[in-house]
Amino acid sequence: MALEIKSGALVCLRDLQPSSPFFKQGASLRIIGKLNEYSLETGVATIIDGNDILKVSTEHLRDLTFQVGSVYQFIGELLIQPDNEGILQARVGRNVDGIDLNLYHQSLLLLRQFQADHLNNPAI
Amino acid sequence: MQKQVVTTLHDTHVKLLAFDLLSLKQSNSSSDPTFFYRRGIPLSRVETLGTVTLVDHKPNKFLRFAIDDATGCVPCILWLNHHSSPFLARRHPNPDHLRLIADAAARSAALVRIGAVARVRGRISSYKGALQVTVSDVVLERDPNAEMLHWLDCVYLARNCYNVLPAPPK
Question: Which Gene3D superfamilies does the annotation name (chain A) (predicted)?
Fold first, then answer.
């Protein structure tokens, strides 16, 4: 079955600095953060994780309500604008209030390490 | 003892991350084309968990969808053609049995929507050379920690179980 859709690479907001390998036009990403601001007019959400901020366009999302202070997960493609600011064009989003963010960040590191180990010693 | 464990994996729903699942090798033997191999260990069933990112529904035929677990996208197919498929009619000659299976598939299909987090179990199969999961059941996960707990399960099982099993003798 040829379902043509990319997996959203697991990243933290701090991984999305312009020098980061994840900061690429069209990159499919999965991000998580607390909603800091939401514009009903533009459908743009601003999410934060510590000191890091990312804008997320939610115009393609349906059946999702936004509440400042809640934690959201988004999967989508990164659009790098002329001013070199990235905005995630979300195609999937959900409220993840109650998530253990400390465990999430630790799990992310473990998962990356596991994938790297697997690439060095692939299943054959 | 270890050989017994290997044998039981044949019918175990093995928990694999998408990137690991999608790298399985299909048997070249015409005698057992339903087996897929990971480090020489034959597998036939899998459990995956992630976010539904794509849905293609053909009523009374099939539901195709993709599960993104942050390491890859697993193509899944849930057959909904129980009342029109001669193959399934032959396989389940008891109409009551067939109806129960059809109802279960319809219930699973109703759960699948974009953005949902789903735990999917099924048989590993392939279509046009690409690996997919032929779905037997779908459960929605409401715990926001479910995906990362699945990652941890998969990593633990790979490191402490699947990777250390000896391949069966050829």
Answer: Nucleic acid-binding proteins
Whether A3 sits inside 8 A of B54 (CB atoms) is yes
Domain that holds residue A42: 9-98
Number of domains making up chain B: 1
Residue-number span of the structural domain to which B57 is assigned: 10-163
- Residues of chain B short of pLDDT 70, as ranges, are 1-8, 28-33, 170
Beta carbons of A123 and B24 less than 8 Å apart: yes
Give me chain B's average pLDDT, please. Answer: 88
Residue B2 lies inside a defined structural domain of this protein: no
CB-CB under 8 Å, A96 with B54? no
Mean pLDDT over all residues of chain A?
Answer: 92
Query: Residue B1: what pLDDT?
Result: 47
Interface probe for B, chosen from A3, A10, A110 (most Cβ of B below 10 Å), is: A3
CB contact under 8 A, A10 and B70: yes
Residue A90 confidence (pLDDT) = 97
Q: Is residue B5 part of a domain?
A: no
Per-residue confidence (pLDDT) for residue B67, from 0 to 100: 97
Tokens of A47: 């999410």
Helical residues (DSSP H) of chain A, grouped into ranges: 101-120
- Collect contacts of B162-166 with beta carbons under 8 A, ≥24 apart: B162/B9, B162/B14, B162/B16, B162/B38, B162/B39, B162/B41, B163/B39, B165/B2, B165/B5, B165/B6, B165/B9, B165/B39, B165/B41, B166/B2, B166/B6
What's the CATH number where B104 sits?
2.40.50.140
Q: Indicate which CATH number applies to the domain containing A91.
A: 2.40.50.140
**Chain B CB contacts of A111 below 8 Å:** 17, 70-71, 151, 155
The predicted-structure confidence for B146-170, as pLDDT tens digits, reads as follows: 999 999 999 999 999 988 887 777 6
